[in-house]
Amino acid sequence: MDGKATLAAIKIELAERVRALAARGIVPGLGTVLVGDDPGSRWYVAAKHRDCAEIGIRSIARELPAGTSQGEVEAVVDELNADPECTAFLVQQPTGLDEFAILSRVDPDKDVDGLHPVNLGSLVLGRAAPLPCTPMGIIELLRRYEVPIAGAQAVVIGRGLTVGRPLGLLLTRRSENATVTLCHTGTRDLAEHVRRADIVVAAAGVPGLITADMVKPGAAVLDVGVSRVDGKIAGDVSRAGEQDVARVAGFLAPNPGGVGPMTRAMLLGNVVAAAERQR
Ligand SMILES: Nc1nc(=O)c2c([nH]1)NC[C@@H]1CN(c3ccc(C(=O)N[C@@H](CCC(=O)O)C(=O)O)cc3)C=[N+]21
Fold this sequence. Notes:
One of its GO terms (biological process) is purine nucleotide biosynthetic process. This is Bifunctional protein FolD. This protein has 279 residues and is an alpha/beta fold. Helix content is 41%, strand content 16%. It is built from nine helices and ten strands. Helix 2 (39-55) links the parallel strand 1 (29-35) and strand 2 (58-64). Helix 2 (39-55) crosses helix 9 (259-278), helix 6 (133-144) packs across helix 7 and helix 6 packs across helix 9. The longest helix is centred in the N-terminal third of the chain and has 21 residues, at 3-23. The chain starts with a helix and ends with a helix. 5,10-Methenyltetrahydrofolate is lined by residues 43-44, 47, 90-93, 113, 133, 233, 255-257, 260-261, 263-264.
């Protein structure tokens, strides 16, 4: 499953909606707040702004030095909340600060990550709200490759706030109708769970955790793990030699090249949707 190609296709669809907004005199704006100088975070934020430029979304990039205080970051959040040119924004994680306090301070209607407590509450309650980008990107990738979700056994490995926990909620909605097993580092017999799955989403951050012998032939496997091994991205899904999951999977979203670009696609979609709502 090619996330880069799917991102390109989604950009064409979103550019059309941006043009329709422009015809009404509305230009959506994405704000980003980057704290410190981590090269990975810098790359992600720069990629988001390149995406925006391509489809006609304005960029508002705020860079704060390492060592910026909680209060200073919150003051920037307040500014972006009040800025009418800023349709939606995010504070790139990790900041090393109180992430919950920062997320909670963002205007829920401008929350492009879908991670504000009110928006996560809406997800639990099944009410319309911005949805988390990586989990939505996973579902969109499955849909576009016509992987059946309704009635499928889905095993999600990882219970983090940005991927595993909200993905379990999304996949069990009536509109998706999957049966979900949410596994984690405390799961006994992980291989037994994975072997039963039609859809495997690996988001534990353990390099090479999922091996070919654990995967049901024909299953869809999505690699969301991001670790760095020798400076290169290493996913949770084994891609080497005999245990290469590509040998048994029916569909594979590799990392890089799979879910990462889909996260960016859903983020763009959340900006456009926020502009359409605010109009
Ligand atoms: N507030 C906040 N919102 C986020 O959405 C957020 C964040 N913080 N912190 C970090 C994670 C990570 N993330 C990715 C975005 C794009 C790729 C991506 O496009 N990856 C490419 C290239 C990877 C590479 O080559 O470095 C790929 O997988 O092919 C990956 C990961 C967004 N995040």
